[in-house]
Structure formats: structure tokens, C-alpha cells
TrEMBL record:
It comes from the Bacteria. Residues 228-272 form the Flagellar basal-body/hook protein C-terminal domain. PANTHER family: FLAGELLAR BASAL-BODY ROD PROTEIN FLGG (PTHR30435:SF19), FLAGELLAR PROTEIN (PTHR30435). Residues 121-178 form the Flagellar hook protein FlgE/F/G-like D1 domain. It is found in: Bacterial flagellum basal body. SUPFAM superfamilies: Flagellar hook protein flgE (SSF117143). The keyword DNA damage does not apply. Residues 5-35 form the Flagellar basal body rod protein N-terminal domain. Keywords: Bacterial flagellum, Cell projection, Cilium, Flagellum. Its main location: other. This is Flagellar basal-body rod protein FlgG.
């Protein structure tokens, strides 16, 4: 009986965390470059139930041997193992702002272990001087002329240096070259993640690695892409599907809640009524 409490409660916790993830996806449906999260729900290992008893081996029952008979397996509940981003490209939307950039995927080599393509990202430097990565190309120029994100993080070039410009009168070609006053001043840094599922998702659309920096996409064989100035990549959140998944999570939560209430009533009956006899 008590095990049923734990199984139902684990189902409620799983659906609560799944609903929180889906709510975050929906709230970022209009965030440029946002990658929707997908939940991986797993079950705990099942338990093999056996009945233990004794069987007499003589007519008078003086000698008996222990016996075991299998009753079947018992589920011990579920849990949400992780939330993994979906790196599918979002829609490309025109903004006509010179500081807005969008990465348009071309050929991306497949990862041999996962069988899925890698991902391209802008290289960013955060306030602590550490490298971060993003698909959000909603950039701007700060007071000192540096190309930054909306949160003030510096956009880096292919040499991991900050990009400084004199004004917004510059152009960026499809190869990432920044041209100002008819002179090439820098090249936008683009990193290639061969296994993007190894990236760690942070807030504000940023990703980080646990080890070394990602390799430059310009120097990686088999990678092709182009940059579009005056465009932004939208999020890849499917709002209709996300709403459907949220309703499913709520209904599943309610079903586990009703099971928990049924167990509670059974325990109440066992303690307050059967226990009096």
C-alpha cells in the first residue's frame, strides 16, 4: 500500500517538472534563437515479486522445504531524467537592422555516436571573460562601439577578440566578413559543436562547455553555412504542440492525484474501521 503512495507521487513530480519545462518553452516562443527543450521520462527499475512459503515433503509434515513462486514485476515509479534542447533551425525573420545576424545552416556533419547533425553558434564573451555560445543574433553596439548582445556580453570574432566598430554603417557578407569603410575589420566568430547535446544550457539563450572551447566552424571540414545581416532566427518552439503537451501533463498529474487520494482513503478505512475489529 505504501509503495503505491511513492509510485503515484513520483508520477505527480514528473509531470510537474515536465509542465514547468513546457511553460518555459512557451514563454520563450518569441525569443530569437531559442531552442525548445524536450523531456526524457524514464521509469525506475522494476522489482521482481516472489511469494515465499514451505512445502511438506513427508505425509506427516515433519520435514518441509522452502519454496519460491514468482508473482510478477512491480513498477517503482517514473522520473524526468533530463531536458535536452532541440537544435532544429527556427524560421528566419527579416528585421532590416544592420546589427542583427542569423546563421543559416548548410551542411552539418553527423555525430557518429548520436547519428544527429552538429550545431553552429555565435561565440560570446560573458561578464567574467568566459566563452559562451548562442544562436540569438540580436546584437547591438554599446557606447564604446563594441558589438554586444542585448545583455551586454561581447560578440567575438574568429580570433576570440572583441569586435569594435565605428558606427552601424557596416556590412557583413555571407562568409562572416565585417566590412566598414571598404575595409575588412573582422570576421564574426562561429563555433561548431559536433555533439551539441554535450552543451550545458544557461539562461539568456547561452550555452557553455565543460572543457575546451568549441572548434571554429570556418576550419571544420564538411561544414557549410552562411550569415544573413538584417535577419534573426526565431525560436523553434511549436506553440500548438507545446499547448497539447501541457494539457497532457496536467491530465496525467490529475490522474496520479486521484490514485493518491484513493490510496489515502483505503489507508483511512484500514486504520479507523478495520483496525477496530
Amino acid at each position: 500500500m505504501f509503495r503505491g503512495f511513492y509510485t503515484a507521487a513520483s508520477g505527480m513530480l514528473t509531470q510537474q517538472r515536465r509542465a514547468e519545462m513546457l511553460t518555459n518553452n512557451l514563454s520563450n516562443a518569441n525569443t530569437p534563437g531559442f531552442k525548445t527543450d524536450q523531456a526524457s521520462v524514464r521509469s525506475f527499475p522494476e522489482m521482481l515479486m516472489q511469494r515465499m512459503g514451505q512445502q511438506a515433503t513427508t505425509p506427516n509434515g515433519n520435514i518441509s522445504l522452502p519454496i519460491h513462486s514468482q508473482l510478477g514485476t512491480l513498477s517503482t515509479g517514473v522520473y524526468m531524467q533530463e531536458a535536452t534542447p532541440l537544435y532544429k533551425q527556427g524560421d528566419i525573420q527579416e528585421t532590416e537592422l544592420s546589427t542583427d545576424l542569423a546563421i543559416v545552416n548548410g551542411n552539418l556533419p553527423l555525430n557518429q555516436e548520436s547519428g544527429k547533425p552538429g550545431s553552429l553558434l555565435f561565440i560570446i564573451e560573458n561578464s567574467e571573460g568566459e566563452a559562451r555560445y548562442t544562436r540569438n543574433g540580436n546584437f547591438t553596439l554599446d557606447g564604446a562601439g563594441y558589438l554586444t548582445t542585448a545583455n551586454g556580453n561581447y560578440v567575438l570574432d574568429d580570433n576570440s577578440s572583441r569586435i569594435r566598430l565605428n558606427s552601424e554603417n557596416f556590412s557583413i557578407n555571407e562568409d562572416g566578413m565585417i566590412v566598414e569603410n571598404n575595409q575588412t575589420v573582422a570576421r564574426v566568430g562561429i563555433a561548431f559543436a559536433r555533439d551539441p547535446f554535450g552543451l550545458i544550457k544557461e539562461g539568456d539563450g547561452l550555452f557553455r562547455t565543460e572543457g575546451a572551447m568549441l572548434a571554429s566552424a570556418y576550419n571544420t571540414a564538411g561544414v557549410s553555412f552562411n550569415l544573413k545581416q538584417g535577419y534573426l532566427e526565431g525560436s523553434n518552439v511549436d506553440q500548438a504542440q507545446t499547448m497539447t503537451d501541457m494539457l497532457t501533463a496536467y491530465r496525467t498529474f490529475e490522474a496520479n492525484q486521484k490514485i493518491l487520494q484513493a490510496y489515502d482513503k483505503s489507508m483511512d478505512k484500514a486504520v479507523n474501521e478495520i483496525g477496530r475489529l
